[in-house]
Design brief:
Layout lengths: L1 H33 L8 E7 L2 E3 L3 E11 L3 E3 L10 E3 L4 E4 L5 E12 L3 E3 L5 E6 L2 E6 L6 E4 L23 H30 L3 H19 L7 H19 L9 H9 L7 H15 L7 H30 L8
Parallel strand pairs: 2-11
Antiparallel strand pairs: 1-3, 3-7, 4-9, 5-7, 6-7, 8-11, 9-10
């Protein structure tokens, strides 16, 4: 047993030494595997589709990031307009296929408005892993070549120089324009003043008799009674009377019905007997509303009565005006 015990002891020592070495190696390797991944191992690629566009044609910039699985990626926001390049749509985020790495792509859409090499104002991509962050500026990676829509034979043309400013007109022209403007302003003021006078009724009194005479002349030209319309002939004459009376006596409006018209007439100092007007209005009502038949002679008599009443009203009105304008007689002492 003694010799075998010695051999066993000698053989076990190398085994213990090898086990201890393996344990130390594993202990040394364990922290190395436990370390966090480095964000510098991330990969950022930028592609532009299409790489050559025409003015006004949209193009897409794709920013792809491949980073460790635990990484946090911040893509730049949609950039503002710059270098004749405008953003078109909001930013879109696309996720890549599942795997050991984080695969994420940001898609931007732009449109360029000028020829040449244009660069969208993209910012930077930020990649953070376990508190360690790496910022990668995109710079000119999203550049695109913009071509003109014009034919090739027009791209090299140089535009003409700007024309000289028009010479200022002389003094005479300026005075002429000023005179025309002043005349137009004076004419407008005169028309406005005249319209105000008419609206206040300053010219209503002289126009009442003129309007009545013009209306009678127009009815004579129509000759409705001779044309087989005696009823219309009488009704038109009564309308002229009502319009004349409404201008002279504002209380007797033309819109009043016959009964109200006669009632208001009885309260006024009317220069014509009321029974004449009442008889005329009654006959007009039977023709106007009851469709009574008139002969040409009866229509002529009614028209003559209307004209006589209007003439008497006008004579009374003129006499009243002369009495107002006449100076008072001096008193005798």
């Amino acid at each position: 047993m003694g010799p075998f015990r010695g051999v066993a002891r000698c053989g076990m020592r190398p085994l213990f030494a090898m086990g201890a070495g393996c344990a130390v190696a594993m202990a040394a390797a364990a922290p190395a595997h436990a370390q966090s991944p480095d964000p510098r191992a991330s990969l950022v690629t930028v592609s532009v589709v299409p790489a050559i566009v025409t003015v006004g044609e949209p193009f897409t910039v794709r920013v792809r990031v491949q980073a460790p699985k635990v990484a946090t990626v911040r893509f730049p926001e949609v950039p503002p307009s710059a270098d004749a390049v405008d953003p078109v749509d909001p930013r879109a985020i696309e996720e890549g296929p599942p795997g050991d790495l984080l695969d994420r792509t940001a898609v931007y859409t732009f449109v360029a408005w000028d020829v040449g090499r244009r660069i969208p104002a993209l910012g930077s991509v930020a990649i953070a892993v376990a508190g360690r962050e790496r910022t990668i500026p995109l710079g000119e990676r999203g550049a695109v070549e913009v071509r003109s829509l014009l034919p090739a034979d027009t791209t090299d043309r140089v535009p003409r120089d700007a024309r000289a400013l028009l010479p200022l007109p002389g003094r005479l022209w300026q005075y002429t324009v000023l005179g025309v403007v002043l005349l137009a302003l004076l004419g407008w003021l005169w028309l406005r003043h005249r319209a105000r006078r008419q609206s206040r009724g300053d010219l209503a009194e002289p126009e009442a008799w003129v309007k009545a005479r013009e209306s009678f002349a127009a009815l004579d030209a129509l000759a409705l009674a001779d044309a087989g319309e005696p009823g219309r002939h009488a009704i038109a004459h009564v309308d002229v009377l009502r319009a004349y009376v409404a201008r002279r006596f504002p209380d007797l409006k033309a819109s009043l019905d016959a009964a109200t018209f006669l009632a208001v007439l009885g309260t006024l100092d009317f220069p014509v007997p009321a029974h004449r007007v009442a008889a005329l209005m009654s006959r007009d009502g039977t023709v106007r509303f009851a469709q009574a038949v008139l002969t040409a002679a009866e229509a002529g008599a009614l028209a003559a009565e209307v004209r006589d009443i209007v003439a008497q009203l006008q004579l009374s009105h003129e006499a009243r005006l002369r009495a107002i304008e006449r100076p008072p007689a001096p008193r005798r002492r």
